[in-house]
C-alpha cells in the first residue's frame, strides 16, 4: 500500500492555493493489481493512509483545479487531460485550471510520457474520475434539498433540480460532497452527448507560450542558483586521463571545477563540470579547460564501418522471428520475386530546448526541475543513487521545449543531482547545443532486407530482415538471446493479417553508439522500408498503389482510411503530370495514411506540392491538436528523410550544431492537409503515428514522377 | 567586467558584465528575462531573436558591448497581456506546440510586419527562414502572419 507522507490533503490544498473546504478527488493505483484503480476523496485517503493523487479539486468558489500527470512537450496533454475531465465533470474549460503533477510513482502510476500513451493509457480513469466527482456533487445537492438524486442533474458547474429548476453552484456543494463516499460504477456520458471532448478547443498553454511566460526547464531560477556546463568526451566512452583546470579557475565567475560521472545505460560517462555564476561564464571557462581523453580500448568506429557491419549482420539468421505460415516455401513457389535493401540514418533528437536540469541536493532531500518526460523514473533512479527514501526526492515539472524521447531518460538528471550534491548548492546544468547534438543517445540507423513473392498480383510471401542496434540491449544484464518485440514495432502492421506467409527477423548489431527512442521509435524507420517495398510490389504487380494495398487488408478500418485518402487526394483523377505516392503505417494503436504530390518546377527542381494525411486514432479528444501533431510529425519526418543525418567518424558524432545538422525551415514545408477518421475504435496514439508514413509516401511519389527508386535516407531533393 | 546601461522594453537596466557576454545571457541570467531562449549559440536557429532598434537580431551572437544605447525589445516587451496583434494571431491559429522557439518566431514576425504590412508567402519564407521550429509549426506560422497582417488593416475596435 502506498504511503501518504509526501503530499497529504492539507499540503495539496495549500499547494493549489485553496483555503477552506474543498472537494478533492483522484484515483490511485492500489498495490495489488487485481484491486484495479480506485477513486477516493481526500477524507477517504486520510483514513486509508494512502497518498491521494488529487487529480481534481474544487474549491468554495467553484474553481476547479486539475493536476496533469504527464509531461507537456507540445503534444497537448495540458489540454487533453482537462478536456476529458471537464466533459464528465460538467464544467466549462474556463472554470478549470491545470498544473503539473510532480513525479511520484505511487500516486500517478506510470508517468513516462512516451509511446503516445497519455490519452489512450488514462482516458478511462480520467473520465471516471470526472464523472464520480459530478455524481457526488449531484448527491450533495439532493441531500441539501432533500430530494431524490434522480431528480437532479449537473450542468456547467451547477447542479439543477429538474422539477423546481433550483440551482446550486459546485462551490456551494463541495463541503457536503467531500463527506460522501465516492460511488462505484458511475455512468459515463455517451459520445453523442459530448460538448467538450471532440471539439477543437484552443489550448490553455498557448497564451503562456506567446509572451515568454511559459516556464521551461532552462528558465528555472532559484535563490543562489549556480550554472554549470560539462566538458564531455567527444568520443563515446572516453575516460579522463588527465586535466588541467588552472586557467579555468582564474576565469571570471567560476566557482568550482569538478569531475563528474553520468550513467548512460550500462556505461558511465566521465566529464568535467565547470560551475559559475552564469551560464555564459561557465561556457567561456570550459574553453580554457585542457583535458586528455583516454580512448584506448574503445572503438573508433565510423558511419561506413557501422553500415558495413549491419549489412554483414544481414547474412546471419537473426535471433528473433515473428512468423506466419511458411515464408521459404511460399517464396520458392512465387511466380514473381522481388528483393530490395533499404537504409535509414542515425538521427539526433535536436529538441529546441537543449537538455538541462536544475538540481538542489540538501542533506536528506533532493529537488529536481527540468524538461522531463519520465519524472517517476527519475525519482526512483535518484532514490537509489543518492540512497534516500523515495519520498525525499521531488521531481518538479516544467514545460518541455521538445522531448521526442530524449528527455525520457535519467542521465542528465542524475548528473545534475551529483553535481549539486558535491557543491552543496542549487545548480542548473545546461547542455550546449553541441553537447546535445553529439552525445546522443541517437535514433539507431538500420538496414533492411526485404523479400516478397507475388502470384496473380497478390503477395504470397513476405520477409523483412533488419539489422540495427537494439535499444533494449544496452541495459545492464539485458537478454540478448531472444526476440523482445521492440524492433518490429509498426512493421507491416496494417497488412499482417492479409499475407499468409511472412517472416520478420532482426539481427541486433553491436556498437558502442548509444541509441534511444526517437519520435515513433523503430516505426520511424520500419515504415520507410516496408511501405517503400509495398510500392515496389504494387508496381511489379502492375496495380494501382491504393488498390494493391486494399487488396491485402482484412480489416474494414483500413479500407475506410484508404477510401478517405482516395477521396481527399482526388486520387482517381490525379492525372500523369505530377507524381503521387502513398504510404500507410500503424503504430501506437493508430493508423495513418499519407499521400504526397511532387512535380518539377520551372527550374527543374523537385518540389512537394501537396501533402494529405488521414489519421485514424479512434476515439479522440481534440481534433486541432491531432492535426497539429500530424503536421509536426510530417515536418520532422521530412527533415530525417531529406535533410539531416548524424554521421560518425573516429568514434564520435560529426554534426555538432544546426549549421551542419540542418533542419527543415519554413520554406521547405508546404501546406499540410490533415483529416481525422470518425469511428468507434478505442483511442490510439496521436503524437507519433503521423511520422512513419511520410518518408515512404514522398519516395513513392518521386518514383511515380521520375522512375527513380530511393532506398537510402536521407536523400537530397535537389539531386533527384 | 564593465558597466552597461541598457534600454530594454522601454525601461532602463544597469548591468555589470564581461564586454563579450552575449545579450542573450545578459537578458536570461543577469536580468531574468527568460522569454528569450538559448537554442544554438551561433545564430543558426533564431530562438534568441530580439529587436535592436526594431530590427530582428540574434541575441546569442550580439556582445553586450556592441549594443550601446540602441533600444532592445524582447518578447516581454511585445505585450505581457497578449494584446499585440501578432500574439493574437498566434493564439487564433494555435501555432505553438512545445512553444520553445515561438517567442523568437514572434519577434521575427513582428519585425517583418513592421517593414512589410502585407507580406506574401515568399516574403514570409524569406523573413522567417532563420527561425527553426522542431515541432514543425511552419504552416501555422505562415497562416498566423497573414492573419496578423489582415488584423492590422482592420480599424481598431471602438471602446466606450
Automatic annotation (TrEMBL), chain A:
Gene3D superfamilies: Aldehyde oxidase/xanthine dehydrogenase, a/b hammerhead, Aldehyde oxidase/xanthine dehydrogenase, molybdopterin binding domain
Keyword Ribosomal protein: no
GO MF, any single term: oxidoreductase activity
Domain spans labelled Aldehyde oxidase/xanthine dehydrogenase a/b hammerhead: 211-297
Entries under PROSITE patterns matching the protein: TAT
Signal peptide: none
One Pfam assignment: MoCoBD_1
Protein name: Xanthine dehydrogenase
Originating species: Niastella vici
TrEMBL record, chain B:
Stretches assigned to coiled coil: none
2Fe-2S ferredoxin-type domain ranges (all copies): 2-78
Keyword Oxidoreductase: yes
GO molecular-function terms, A-Z: 2 iron, 2 sulfur cluster binding; metal ion binding; oxidoreductase activity
Keyword ATP-binding: no
PROSITE patterns xref list: 2FE2S_FER_1, 2FE2S_FER_2
Gene3D superfamilies noted in UniProt: 3.10.20.30, [2Fe-2S]-binding domain
Lineage top rank: taxon: Bacteria
InterPro entries documented for this protein: 2Fe-2S-bd, 2Fe-2S-bd_dom_sf, 2Fe-2S_ferredoxin-like_sf, 2Fe-2S_ferredoxin-type, 2Fe2S_fd_BS, Beta-grasp_dom_sf, Diverse_Oxidoreductases
CDD domains assigned: fer2 (cd00207)
Keywords on record: 2Fe-2S, Iron, Iron-sulfur, Metal-binding, Oxidoreductase
PANTHER family linked to this entry: BLR6218 PROTEIN, OXIDOREDUCTASE WITH IRON-SULFUR SUBUNIT
Protein name: (2Fe-2S)-binding protein
Species lineage: Bacteria, Pseudomonadati, Bacteroidota, Chitinophagia, Chitinophagales
Amino acid at each position: 500500500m502506498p504511503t501518504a507522507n509526501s503530499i497529504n490533503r492539507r499540503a495539496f490544498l495549500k499547494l493549489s492555493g485553496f483555503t477552506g473546504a474543498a472537494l478533492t478527488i483522484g484515483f490511485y493505483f492500489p498495490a495489488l493489481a487485481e484491486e484495479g484503480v480506485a477513486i477516493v476523496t481526500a477524507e477517504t485517503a486520510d483514513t486509508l493512509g494512502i497518498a491521494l493523487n488529487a487529480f481534481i479539486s474544487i474549491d468554495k468558489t467553484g474553481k476547479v483545479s486539475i493536476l496533469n500527470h504527464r509531461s507537456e512537450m507540445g503534444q497537448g496533454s495540458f489540454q487533453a487531460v482537462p478536456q476529458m475531465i471537464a466533459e464528465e465533470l460538467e464544467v466549462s474549460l474556463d472554470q478549470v485550471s491545470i498544473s503539473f503533477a510532480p513525479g511520484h510513482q505511487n500516486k500517478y502510476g506510470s508517468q513516462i510520457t512516451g509511446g503516445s500513451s497519455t490519452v489512450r493509457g488514462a482516458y478511462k480513469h480520467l473520465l471516471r474520475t470526472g464523472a464520480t466527482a459530478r455524481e457526488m456533487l449531484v448527491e450533495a445537492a439532493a441531500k441539501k434539498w432533500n430530494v431524490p438524486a434522480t431528480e437532479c442533474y449537473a450542468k456547467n458547474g451547477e447542479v439543477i433540480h429538474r422539477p423546481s429548476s433550483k440551482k446550486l453552484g459546485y462551490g456551494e456543494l463541495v463541503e457536503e460532497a467531500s463527506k460522501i463516499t465516492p460511488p462505484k460504477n458511475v455512468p459515463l456520458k455517451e459520445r453523442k452527448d459530448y460538448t467538450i471532448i471532440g471539439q477543437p478547443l484552443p489550448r490553455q498553454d498557448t497564451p503562456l507560450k506567446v509572451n515568454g511566460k511559459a516556464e521551461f526547464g532552462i528558465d528555472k531560477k532559484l535563490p543562489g542558483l549556480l550554472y554549470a556546463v560539462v566538458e564531455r568526451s567527444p568520443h563515446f566512452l572516453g575516460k579522463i586521463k588527465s586535466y588541467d583546470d588552472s586557467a579555468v579557475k582564474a576565469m571570471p565567475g567560476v566557482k568550482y571545477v569538478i569531475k563528474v560521472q553520468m550513467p548512460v545505460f550500462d556505461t558511465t560517462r566521465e566529464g568535467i563540470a565547470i560551475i559559475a555564476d552564469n551560464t555564459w561564464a561557465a561556457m567561456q571557462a570550459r574553453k580554457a579547460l585542457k583535458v586528455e581523453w583516454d580512448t584506448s580500448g574503445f572503438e573508433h568506429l565510423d558511419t561506413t564501418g557501422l553500415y558495413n557491419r549491419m549489412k554483414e549482420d544481414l547474412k546471419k539468421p537473426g535471433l528473433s522471428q515473428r512468423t506466419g505460415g511458411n515464408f521459404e516455401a511460399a517464396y520458392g513457389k512465387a511466380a514473381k520475386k522481388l528483393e530490395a535493401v533499404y537504409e535509414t540514418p542515425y538521427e539526433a533528437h535536436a529538441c529546441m530546448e537543449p537538455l538541462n536540469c536544475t538540481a538542489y541536493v540538501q542533506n536528506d532531500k533532493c529537488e529536481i526541475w527540468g524538461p522531463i518526460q519520465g519524472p517517476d523514473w527519475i525519482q526512483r533512479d535518484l532514490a537509489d543513487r543518492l540512497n534516500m527514501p523515495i519520498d525525499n526526492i521531488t521531481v518538479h515539472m516544467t514545460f518541455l521545449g521538445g522531448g521526442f524521447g530524449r528527455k525520457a531518460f535519467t542521465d542528465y538528471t542524475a548528473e545534475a543531482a551529483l553535481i549539486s550534491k558535491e557543491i552543496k548548492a542549487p545548480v542548473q546544468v545546461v547542455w550546449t547545443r553541441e553537447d546535445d547534438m553529439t552525445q546522443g543517445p541517437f535514433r539507431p540507423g538500420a538496414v533492411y532486407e526485404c523479400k516478397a513473392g507475388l502470384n496473380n498480383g497478390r503477395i504470397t510471401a513476405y520477409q523483412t530482415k533488419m539489422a540495427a542496434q537494439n535499444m533494449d540491449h544496452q541495459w545492464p544484464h539485458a537478454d540478448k538471446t531472444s526476440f523482445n518485440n521492440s524492433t518490429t514495432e509498426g512493421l507491416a502492421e496494417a497488412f499482417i493479417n492479409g499475407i499468409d506467409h511472412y517472416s520478420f527477423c532482426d539481427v541486433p548489431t553491436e556498437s558502442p553508439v548509444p541509441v534511444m527512442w526517437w519520435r515513433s521509435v523503430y516505426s520511424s524507420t520500419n515504415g520507410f522500408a516496408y511501405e517503400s517495398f509495398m510500392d515496389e510490389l504494387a508496381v511489379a504487380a502492375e496495380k494501382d498503389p491504393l488498390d494493391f494495398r486494399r487488396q491485402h487488408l482484412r480489416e474494414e478500418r483500413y479500407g475506410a482510411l484508404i477510401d478517405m485518402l482516395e477521396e481527399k487526394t482526388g486520387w482517381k483523377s490525379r492525372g500523369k503530370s505530377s507524381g503521387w505516392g502513398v504510404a500507410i503505417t500503424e503504430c501506437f494503436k493508430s493508423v495513418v495514411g499519407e499521400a504526397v504530390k511532387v512535380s518539377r518546377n520551372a527550374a527543374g527542381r523537385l518540389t512537394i506540392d501537396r501533402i494529405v494525411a488521414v489519421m485514424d486514432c479512434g476515439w479522440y479528444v481534440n481534433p486541432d491538436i491531432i492535426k497539429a501533431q500530424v503536421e509536426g510529425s510530417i515536418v520532422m519526418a521530412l527533415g530525417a528523410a531529406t535533410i539531416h543525418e548524424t554521421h560518425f567518424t573516429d568514434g564520435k558524432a560529426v554534426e555538432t550544431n544546426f549549421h551542419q545538422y540542418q533542419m527543415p525551415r519554413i520554406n521547405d514545408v508546404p501546406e499540410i492537409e490533415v483529416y481525422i477518421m470518425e469511428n468507434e475504435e478505442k483511442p490510439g496514439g496521436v503524437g507519433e503515428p503521423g511520422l512513419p508514413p511520410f518518408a515512404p509516401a514522398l519516395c513513392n511519389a518521386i518514383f511515380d514522377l521520375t522512375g527513380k527508386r530511393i532506398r537510402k535516407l536521407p536523400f537530397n531533393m535537389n539531386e533527384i | 567586467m564593465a558597466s552597461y546601461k541598457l534600454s530594454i522594453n522601454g525601461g532602463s537596466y544597469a548591468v555589470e558584465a564581461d564586454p563579450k557576454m552575449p545579450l542573450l545571457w545578459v537578458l536570461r541570467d543577469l536580468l531574468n528575462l527568460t522569454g528569450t531562449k538559448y537554442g544554438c549559440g551561433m545564430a543558426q536557429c533564431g530562438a534568441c531573436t530580439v529587436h535592436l532598434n526594431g530590427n530582428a537580431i540574434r541575441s546569442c551572437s550580439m556582445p553586450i558591448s556592441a549594443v550601446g544605447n540602441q533600444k532592445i525589445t524582447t518578447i516581454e516587451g511585445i505585450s505581457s497581456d497578449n494584446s499585440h496583434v501578432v500574439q493574437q494571431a498566434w493564439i487564433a491559429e494555435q501555432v505553438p506546440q512545445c512553444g520553445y522557439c515561438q517567442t523568437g518566431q514572434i519577434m521575427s514576425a513582428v519585425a517583418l510586419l513592421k517593414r512589410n504590412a502585407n507580406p506574401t508567402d515568399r516574403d514570409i519564407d524569406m523573413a522567417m527562414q532563420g527561425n527553426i521550429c522542431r515541432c514543425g509549426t511552419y504552416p501555422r506560422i505562415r497562416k498566423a502572419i497573414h492573419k496578423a497582417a489582415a488584423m492590422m488593416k482592420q480599424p481598431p475596435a471602438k471602446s466606450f
